[in-house]
Structure formats: structure tokens, C-alpha cells
Amino acid sequence: MFLNFSLKKQGVLGMNSRNLDYIFSANDRRLYTLVDDKLNTKTLAEENGIKMPKTYGIISYQDEIKKLAEMLEGYEEFVVKPAKGSGGGGILVVTGRTKEKSGEKFLRAGGQEISPAALRYHIGNILGGLYALGGVRDRAIIEQRVDNIPLFRSLSGQGVPDIRLLVYRGVPVMGMLRLPTVKSRGRANLHTGGVGIGFCLKTGVTTQALWKNRYVTHHPDTRRQLSGLKIPQWRAVMETAAKAGEMTGLGYLGADIVIDRRHGPMLLELNARPGIAIQTANRTGLKPRLEAVDRDLHLLKTAEDKIAYAAENFAAE
Questions:
Q1: What pLDDT shows up at residue 147?
Q2: Quick one: DSSP state of residue 54?
Q3: CATH top class, domain 15-53+148-313
Q4: Residue 186 carries which DSSP code?
Q5: For residue 315, what are the contacts with CB-CB under 8 A and spacing of at least 6?
Q6: Tell me, what's the pLDDT at 122?
Q7: DSSP 8-state code for residue 14
Q8: What is the DSSP letter of 275?
Q9: Could you tell me which residues are beta bridge partners of residue 209?
Q10: What is the pLDDT of residue 303?
Q11: For the domain bounded by 55-143, which CATH number is listed?
Q12: Residue range(s) occupied by CATH 3.30.1490 in the chain
């Protein structure tokens, strides 16, 4: 399905090579905590002038759940997420509230209702490590819900699209726009049913789309065409990814970026072990791009150099 030629000839990076040749060699394990814990990422981003969704509250212990109503006072929309979660697990998006005779209910991104008791139970599961890497004890973050730009709202209908950029040695080398679907329940992750769309690193224009391991031309829910779309504020998106790569000290990582209607591009989270399906979405192998960066890195002195290099060398054909 990927291409008519052998994967090796196309320079497709396999999981073993990703782990041994790039993650293991480029990522110091002592730095993983900077990205595996979203609260650490938020602190680091603030120190480096990178915008992230605003934090409304943090719950670290079970007895703090009793203060949830007070913490949420004045917020109609918010997101609850585990600090150490991965793959979108445990993220709950609230888009509003409703008053009923039986009491107040929260509205989820897909339109479903959730009671305050169910929300407290969900947070308790987060603290217990249900969604954390390795099942360790965790903290729950309550943060600002991203206000989608009109283009993304019309494309996905629900949830928050994000832009995954794979950054190697500070150079953006490949990216995809990820769109939520009804099947993914408002999450943008491909393994939950989200749509992945490849794009050109020079222009930010989308090329082809992948959904449920097959190529599609239109969004499965909204029926919007997915190729030929220009991602807004493209330069700022690339700059955010490059800065994120530099600030962590990690040589190989995925940067997930959202575009807020009022605040522009914001870093959502970082991943020290980004998946390799991004190649399928772009119909292009990663290996030649990574090798090119290794070859030319000595010529790239600044973040500006690295962004310009990516635009010149990794544009879509």
C-alpha cells in the first residue's frame, strides 16, 4: 500500500532503526522527563518563550479532587489530561455545561454528557496512573481548551486538529496535520481513528491523507477535501517546532502544535518516541532526510538556518 517499490529503496525508517539509530543515539535518557511529564514541558516552554495552553489547575492527590468545583469556577470550557499520558489516552475535552433538574452536567467534545461525579472519577483514574507511561502515579492537568481557527473547525467538525512535526537535531524533517473524527472521539491520534495528512515543509500546503491505513481524499465526517490546503501562520508553526527541539536537548522528537484563533500557534506537547506512520501519510521515507541532516548539520548554525534548510530540502515534489 505504501509505494510500489521496496521500503528499503524508498528510505523508509523502520521501528528498530528508529529506536537504535536515532532515538537511542540522539536522545539522552536523562532528558526524557522534560517531555514525558507535560508539566515539565510547560515550565521549560515558559522559560523559552514558547506559548502553550494556559494551565487552570493541577491535581496531584486524591483529596484535592474535592476542590474541583472551586477550581473550575468561571470556566465553561477546559481540558483534563494526565501529565504523564501518551497517545492521547485520558484526555477529556469539555466544551460547555448544562443545567438539568438532576444537577449540572458537563458537555464533551462529541456532544455526550458527563456528570461531575464521573469527571471526578476520571481524574482519580489519572492520579492512579491508568493512562501514565509505565502505570506510575500521575497528576491531572486542567487547562485551556484551544479555540480552533475557522479552517480547522470546518475540516474536522469536532476536537482539536494538531500539527505533528518530527524534529531531528533541531531541523524539522517531516510533518503531518492530524484531524479528529467521530471514530476517534475528538482526538487527533491516528491509532484512535484520526486522519493524518502529509504536507510540504516549504509551503505548509497539504498533499495526501491517510485514514484507517488507507489513502482518502475527503474527511470521513465533514466530507471536506483534504489536499491543497494551506496551513495558516506556517512560518510561526515551523519556528515553534524548531525552538521546541532546541530547548529540550533531545535530538529526535515529535512536536505537536495547535493553532488557536486568538493566540496563534501553541505547543501542545512533545514526544521523545514519535511514531513512524508520518512516512505513510507523506508517501516518503524518513531515512534520506535524517541522513541529509547528519551530513549538513555543521553548516546550520542557527534555528533560522535549520528552518530554511528544511524548506529548501524537504519540500513536497
A1: 93
A2: P
A3: alpha beta
A4: T
A5: 200, 201, 202, 203
A6: 97
A7: P
A8: -
A9: 197, 216
A10: 92
A11: 3.30.1490
A12: 55-143
The pLDDT, as a whole number, for residue 112 is: 85
| pLDDT the model gives residue 36 | 95
Rg (CA), the chain: 20
Q: Please, what are the averages of pLDDT over each run of 10 residues along the chain (317 residues)?
A: 54 94 95 96 96 97 95 94 90 88 80 92 96 92 95 88 96 96 85 93 96 94 95 96 94 97 96 94 95 97 95 90
Query: Which residue intervals of the chain bear CATH 3.30.470.20?
Result: 15-53+148-313
Cell 515529535 appears where? 254
Q: Which of 177, 223, 224, 241 is nearest to 204 (CA)?
A: 177
Q: Would you say 13 and 293 are in contact if contact means Cβ atoms under 8 Å apart?
A: no
Name all contacts of 39-45 with Cβ < 8 Å and 24+ positions apart. Answer: 39/83, 39/139, 39/141, 41/267, 41/269, 41/270, 44/247, 44/248, 45/244, 45/247, 45/267
Q: How many residues does the chain have?
A: 317
Count CB-CB contacts under 10 A for residue 85: 23
Dihedral angle at the C-alpha atoms of 170, 171, 172, 174, nearest 10 degrees? -120
User: Would you say the C-alpha torsion 265, 185, 151, 238 has a positive or negative sign?
Assistant: positive
